[in-house]
Queue: 2 jobs
Job 1
Amino acid sequence: MDTRLITIDKEEPEPDRIEEAAAVIRSGGLVAFPTETVYGLGGSALDPEASRKIYAAKGRPSDNPLIAHIAGFDALPELAAEIPETARILMRLYWPGPMTLVFKKTDAVPYEITGGLDTVAVRMPSHPVARALIQAAGVPVAAPSANASGRPSPTRAEHVAEDMDGRIDMILDGGEVGIGLESTIIDVSGSQPSLLRPGFISEEMLAQVLENLTVDDASMGPVGSDMHPKAPGMKYRHYAPRAQMTIVRGGTQVVEAQICHLAQEAVRAGKKTGILCTEESCPVYKEALHLTPERQDGGGIILKSAGSRHDSLSVAHNLYSALRFFDSVQVDVIYSESFEEGRLKGAIMNRLQKAAGYRILEV
Ligand code: TXA
Ligand code: MG
């Protein structure tokens, strides 16, 4: 299949381009598009065949359900059988925006999109391109992140093309996304709201408006074989670079010293080594490991800053593209610092720990 790449204005999307993309969705095809979180891979949420195409394009297990994206509140009753008061509070605060709610589903929602569950995940994105596309398509749009299953989510159209070229009909290139991590998922289908996936809207923010919020175990720790995570996606390896990654956690200077030591050992063992560092620590590694632009290759150590240690927004924004960068330079192992500061630390560490397969070294 020929994948058409179409650039689009991210503030004021050109109506003719949106219409072309919407026609693809209406006719059962797939279009990748930017949202405020990550790029999504969209198809009609009411068409089981479109869902099957999405699973096939991503290589995703079909028991891992998709999120239905809507453009307006009036589209919700068709999908959600019940809209509890908790959901209304959250929707008023955070829709449109980076929040997904899980409801009991109506009969209109095919089991193909819910992975066989009786619930459906719904999100109303705020990105102008996403909103215009869903509006023009005239149907809710099922959209997982537009990466191949298991790889880091795409934050730029180039990332989508890396994984999806030849597999989908169209990519709308609206440049880099803002947030860089997927939406916060809250299950409101049970008696108590439950946080299934942390995101830009943090647990602390939710706790301010919900007294009885519970946190699904699977949202933070490794998922044991005896656990049944509420969000089926939690049990799969995720967001992962190709190299084996280890997170080193502890006091700043001890971590830096330990990462230097581990990187030198890895290089001695003939492994090309990546270090995921911060703006603050990159110069420290450069000096300690005597890295110059020439020696970075010869020495087999490659540094990548995820952003400032004191600015969790910047780390969230850069994390996935940093992991993809390490793939592109084909490192064998990655040592990463732990990011323990700021509002998004929960969401960042959730993704980073999964990417590392929970390989964490406490120092
Ligand atoms: O920010 C986002 O949410 C992005 C953009 C494109 O909107 N989408 C996204 O979709 O991250 P995806 O498919 O990569 O992740 C969806 C997550 C999965 O972990 C899935 O298991 C969970 O949502 N999920 C979907 N439907 C569910 C349901 N009915 N009950 C529980 N979890 C559900
Ligand atoms: Mg995903």
Job 2
Amino acid sequence: MLGVCYYPEHWPESQWELDAKRMVELGISFVRVGEFAWSRLEKRRGEFSFEWLDRAVDVLHAAGLKVVMGTPTATPPKWLMDEFPEIAPYDADGKVRGFGSRRHYSFSSDVWWKESARIVEIVAKRYGEHPGIVGWQTDNEYGCHDTTVSWGKEDLKAFRRWLRLRYQTTDQLNEAWAGVFWSMEFNSFDEVELPTLTVTEPNPAQRLDFWRFSSDQVAAYDKMQVEIIRKHAPGSWVTHNFMGFVSDFDHFKVGDNLDLASWDSYPIGFVEKFPFTEEERNRWAETSHPDIAPFHHDLYRGVGKGRFWVMEQQPGPVNWAPWNPVPKPGMVRLWTWEALAHGAEVVSYFRWRQAPFAQEQMHAGLNLPGLDEWSVGGLEAMQVAKELAALGPLPQGEKASVALVHDYASYWASMIQPQGKDFRYEELAFRWYESLRRLGLDVDFVRPGADLSGYKLVVVPCLMQVDEAALTVLKNTDAVVLYGPRSGSRDRHFRIPENLPPGPLAPLTGTRQTQVASLRPGIRDTVSGLVSGAAIRWREYLQTTAEVLGKFENGDPALTGNDRHHYLACWPDEALLSSTLTLLANKAGLQTLDVPSHIRIRRRGKFTFAFNYGSEDWTIPVSGDFVLGDQVLKPQDVAVWK
Ligand code: GAL
């Protein structure tokens, strides 16, 4: 169940056999190669040299390792960029983001599509039937380095094309975007510009469409690669390695192209990327916050329709965050076990050996730079391999009892009109997830409209636009449902629904919203009743025919509920969130725990796992049949019991 990312092109050929031997010695089964190798595969147009990669794959295969081949499109070489400068992406200020690192392409460049299809076909043809290759990875981390959206001429051309297909006439476009406002009506699709470099706020419906368009471009580009790979590699699976906290495109749509999802887990790097408080950043600096990696494991298991890998696992300090601490001893092992507990099929470390050169020379590997000597992470990976071997195959995971409806478009919409500076969808979804896990609950991520049967509790942190499909499953579910702030507050074209928010959810929840207030940091509105805590950041004014389960200070409804559907009219602080979720979990018949803030638990089939992210022991309050660790869970340790 372990893998590693390997770059044979970085090391002398004389080293490859020993590397392969030591991979096997460590307990590794899968090796990903190739994803940045374009300049070594095609030095100049048509001048190919695949023999080195043939030999590298053969060496790995001969050692009994299974290879995952990456397509090299994240790094178009210089000769190609010089030949077609229109491949390059543009930032929102209209400046080119040129050659010199990676991901320097726009998803909308026609010539880039042709060039991508060409190289993918050549690689897929050459390796599609190779017995050592079991799977494929398309490109590398779509959207990483802020590369989903591009603002150049090629993008404008493709956006206009997309709009024409969607709206057919400018009358329909003008109607959809409410172009009458500020005289923004168009007589031709060629008059439409990209929503940037305007004097003040551009039209929100246009921005939402541009975001949808940019997201569709990623999914379509990926599909193009996947189809070529499937044609030439019929026996292999295809994945893409998603990044953490990239929400500019709808990952579920890319997931539709794939056999399984994978993602790149850098738990400590993400502590700096996520808007944690400084206090939290310091507390979790050397371990990561206990929900950062699990949030993504559960998300990508959903994106992969039940199947996911960690394609890149942080093996020690990384190089790219503002600060890059050394993980506490035991963390590489803990993260690996945690991914497995959440259902990962394979955990693959990035990278085999620390590179003593170029951009990532400060990034750890399983080996120290330039030597055949294990790093701390390498030794911990080896320990997991031994533990796994002793344990035998892990059982299949089951459906969780809680579903979290996760919606990328709500992130876009809330970024377009935040209304309060700190209303950030990703953060809201993360905090709801964190709170559920503090109650000891396992969570599945589902997209809006996905089947909800079998779930006891469904939480919808924020679903701004509720379409027909989403409404139908929500209407029909037997689960207890909780909707969060701003749900149902916009229609497809970014309008406030005629019946007022929560729009289509009004009949289900018996609520109607007349005003919203965003609250500056420090301002709180206390909530009391069956739940208690406070509203922070955001508070809505509701009228309701449902039962009022919690009230704001002035007596207005804060939490409403009828038989199954509940509406929370604010951004809840930790106490309000926890008491609300406890109330509803219990209503749904779920037993909740009060897990300490540094502990998390998770079930996989007959096994329960516990993880200690803190600095104090935790005595596990159940007596189980321990297969790993024991009743007293030490800091940075893992326990597994039946
Ligand atoms: C990932 C990327 C890898 C490597 C790694 C370093 O985002 O896919 O190629 O750059 O980060 O942490």
